[in-house]
Automatic annotation (TrEMBL):
One of its GO terms (cellular component) is mitochondrion. This is Pentatricopeptide repeat-containing protein At1g66345, mitochondrial. The lineage of its organism: Eukaryota, Viridiplantae, Streptophyta, Embryophyta, Tracheophyta. GO terms for biological process: Group II intron splicing; mitochondrial respiratory chain complex I assembly; mitochondrial RNA processing. It comes from the Eukaryota. PANTHER family: OS02G0468500 PROTEIN, PENTATRICOPEPTIDE REPEAT-CONTAINING PROTEIN 1, MITOCHONDRIAL.
Length: 538
């Protein structure tokens, strides 16, 4: 994108001749004839500027200049003659008059010149109206921004004009490229105000692109535009919308031992998220700046450094930071322990992870739900189901519920081991506490009941799914049809096959084989042949 200064070069004098002295008189009422003229300090430009300064009405202007051909370069030159604040209203008057009477549509660059003049003169209402107008006319914000930057020095404008521009973009919901707009302005030496950032943050947070709000907030702090109370309110609203406010209130309280300012919660969330995304160096650099501005507290920053080291898989260094943290008088906290437990679980170091959980209990730390989830998953994966069940009970006792992912692991292993009934009872307990099961949990349980020959238990779960409006998957139908065939309930098996096909699900080839074999065994060759033909059709 070319951001060079957009100067329309003056027309050379050999192409333009001076008009007759008869028409040079500044007070001449006879309309000007259409002659070519030199732009710089031309009598016609001086004349029209003087008429505008004398507040002559549009009718008089039209009478005097109706036969003169106003080109875009001439209009630009007249506006530049009126660029000082004392002439701003005259410039606006000429802009509107020329648009109406000269049969010329102003281009983006002319719009930008008058916007600069009005912004420099603090005629905010008029400037806003024209920014909105040009943005609606030219929907590509970068075309307008390019012209604003290009005409900036031409008008001796002020940075405030870019705040107006950005705020109008927000008002018009033109936010798709808002971060790129901020970066482009920064590259050209223009820093937006916190009010402009707040406008953008508010609009983005209320839109269906609310995920962009954190990138914008991060960029704002990176450029040393520090948040105020309004910024914090917007970001807290964003956390509520994402359903993460409770989580980070808990993180901050566990790190610092007490409730912190809302701004600290927001900033902790930002750095935590950057570390989780793997942008560790960027996150720690930004956190250092926050510490200098008292935007985050020491106890939280130490915990986040430990978290960063753990994410880098440098556990030895992470323990070194933690030990230094303790030597400096800070206490260990659940955030630090959770990060270590999670890392040990990923490396299948189950005993070390459980040992840390026991330490947390001894120190009266309340673990996060995620801490339990880590342990439930890994204990299930390695077959330590009794410990998984105990952790589940302990979690419920702490008023927490496992994630679907963690509980799925446990249910899958219990069902494989013939303990589907135990898993089913645990599911009932969790659902009474507010747990919402997914399709996979039912699939594991139904397969578990089928494996031990309990068809009624499997059917009961199927009808429970129907009641809860959870759509059965292909594997659920497959399990039920095979189980019904095994106990000779072919009519019901055929009914489930019809249901399955009616829901555009494709049965496994083993299902067809089992149905065909069962019908042949029953002596129903016609049905068996029908199913055989369908097998090749499907």
């Amino acid at each position: 994108m070319n951001l060079a200064l957009r100067l329309i070069p003056p027309l050379s004098s050999n192409l333009l001749s001076l008009i007759s002295p008869f028409f040079i008189s500044l007070h001449q009422i006879i309309p000007f004839s259409t002659h070519s003229l030199q732009l710089q300090d031309s009598p016609i430009i001086t004349s029209i500027c003087n008429c505008l300064r004398k507040r002559e009405n549009w009718e008089t202007l039209t009478q005097k200049f109706q036969s003169f051909h106003f080109t875009t370069p001439i209009i630009q030159e007249i506006l530049l003659h009126l660029k000082e604040p004392k002439d701003a209203k005259n410039a606006l008057n000429f802009f509107h008059w020329s648009a109406k009477n000269c049969k010329i549509q102003h281009g983006v660059f002319i719009y930008c010149i008058i916007i600069h003049i009005l912004a420099k003169s603090k005629l905010v209402k008029h400037a806003n109206a024209l920014v909105e107008s040009v943005l609606k006319k030219e929907e590509n914000v970068f075309v307008v921004l390019d012209s604003l930057i290009g005409s900036y020095k031409l008008v001796d404008s002020c940075p405030f004009v870019f705040d107006l521009f950005v705020q109008c973009c927000g008002k018009l919901r033109m936010i798709d490229n808002v971060l790129d707009v901020c970066k482009l302005l920064d590259e050209n030496g223009f820093m937006l105000s916190v009010i402009s950032y707040n406008t953008l943050l508010h609009v983005v947070e209320k839109s269906d692109k609310s995920c962009m709000v954190w990138g914008l907030y991060e960029y704002m702090i990176e450029k040393r535009v520090y948040p105020n109370e309004m910024t914090t309110r917007i970001m807290i609203s964003g956390l509520c919308k994402e359903g993460r406010l409770g989580r980070f209130l808990d993180v901050v309280e566990k790190c610092d031992g007490k409730r912190s300012r809302p701004g600290v919660v927001v900033n902790t969330c930002l750095i935590y998220g950057m570390i989780e995304e793997g942008r560790i160096e960027d996150g720690l650099r930004l956190m250092k700046r926050m510490l200098q501005k008292n935007m985050i507290v020491d106890t939280i920053s130490c915990s986040l450094i430990v978290l960063a080291k753990v994410r880098m898989r440098d556990l030895e260094s992470a323990w070194g930071v933690y030990d230094e943290m303790i030597r400096r008088g800070f206490e260990g906290n659940a955030v630090v322990y959770d990060s270590f437990i999670g890392a040990y679980c990923e490396e299948m170091r189950v005993d070390e992870a459980i040992k840390l959980m026991d330490e947390m209990e001894c120190l009266n730390m309340k673990p996060f739900g995620e801490t339990f989830d880590h342990l439930i998953k890994v204990c299930s994966e390695v077959g330590r189901l009794e410990e998984s069940l105990k952790l589940c009970d302990k979690m419920i006792g702490n008023g927490l519920l496992p994630s679907c992912l963690a509980f799925n692991k446990l249910v899958a292993k219990l069902s494989e081991n013939g303990s589907a009934k135990c898993a089913d009872k645990l599911l009932t307990t969790l659902m009474d506490k507010g747990f919402v099961p997914d399709q996979n949990i039912y699939a594991y349980l139904i397969a578990g009941y089928v494996n031990v020959g309990d068809v009624e238990g499997a059917l009961k779960l199927y009808y429970e799914m129907q009641y809860r409006s959870i759509a059965p998957s292909t594997c659920i139908f497959d399990s039920l049809i095979i189980a019904l065939c095994q106990c000779g309930r072919l009519k019901e098996a055929d009914e489930f096959l019809s249901l399955m096909v009616g829901q555009s699900l494709t049965p496994n080839i083993l299902v067809y084989k089992k149905l065909i074999a069962s019908h042949l065994e029953r002596g129903d060759e016609a049905r068996a042949h029908q199913l055989y033909r369908r097998t090749f059709r499907d």
